[in-house]
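Hi W., the flavin-adenine dinucleotide complex you wanted:
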Amino acid sequence: MILVFCDSKGGKLKPSAREAVSGAHKLAQMLSTDVVAVTFTECSDAATLGALGAKKVIQLTNPELAQYSSEGYAQAAAEVIKANSPQAVVLSASAQGKDFAPRLSARVNAPLLTDCTDLKVDGNAVCALRPIYAGKVLLWAKVTGPFCILSLRPKAFLPVEVGGSTEVTSTSVALDASKIRAKIVEEKMQEGGMVDVTEADVVVSAGRGMKGPENWNLIEDLAKSLGASIGASRAVVDAGWRPHHEQVGQTGKVVAPSLYVAVGISGAIQHVAGMSTSRTIVAINKDADAPIFKLATYGIVGDAFEVLPKLTEEIKKVKSE
Ligand SMILES: Cc1cc2nc3c(=O)[nH]c(=O)nc-3n(C[C@H](O)[C@H](O)[C@H](O)COP(=O)(O)OP(=O)(O)OC[C@H]3O[C@@H](n4cnc5c(N)ncnc54)[C@H](O)[C@@H]3O)c2cc1C
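Structure:
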């Protein structure tokens, strides 16, 4: 059996949970086994995981899990693992997954393969494709032990409907609340109400080529026409032109959207580390030799100040047809 720990918020599954269940289903088919999904709180849409291949959904009801905490989630997940003896555990390499997976790995003494972008099986051994050296190299890692934890890069696995229904049960696990030493006391929504870049299907990112923060209206217009979230290079975040939560890259966020538009971004290795697994990359840069073009699916060599208004206008036209 493959166990999947699902991200949720406000009693609903997060998109990353659906991606994790689909990734787990892909692996389960290769291992001829079933997928069991686990939610840390009760979710009104838990039953929808059946269509993605989960045979069963276990919802945890402990009040201590109502708010996320890495110690609480790791404890609870370890208990579920102990009770089910899965062949593998899958979760999203979301901010939450990145936070509690290492603690869980230490707790259950299992290898953790982080940020996987593909999975396969060699004999009966689980293999995971992972970016290393800041995304410069992709490496297939083979698990030699009997059990492993796999965190999947957000957006690397798309939710795939395979049909089927699921049995949803609710239960509590034994938790030692005194061991949950760090608690979330307040959550603040980031301004703008835009989907976070790590969850967005389309991201428009811009860099120093935009010359100054006063020109971001061009980026906002393009993003709006595409229904995209806005990202940024570190150079413009360091310059104070854009907020840090928009930074994409090695020291920012890792994104893998269907479409990534890089405007006035040179394509330094540290930026590429955060976006190289995007499905389609469009680069707009006035320097034909900019490294970003080596990676781009489509490249526009030109001045962003001339290209952006025209591109936005054309997209608006196509969308209104
Ligand atoms: C330890 C470390 C970690 C780092 N982490 C990150 C990270 O997480 N994310 C990140 O992004 N960077 C990171 N960096 C910084 C990285 O090395 C680059 O300095 C940075 O990505 C450059 O940002 P940029 O592409 O916006 O600027 P530049 O490299 O200055 O590129 C600007 C580009 O705009 C183009 N341009 C100029 N004018 C126009 C115009 N009118 N129209 C179109 N194009 C134009 C230029 O041709 C150029 O290619 C890190 C660096 C280090 C050392």
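The longest helix spans residues 304-320.

W.
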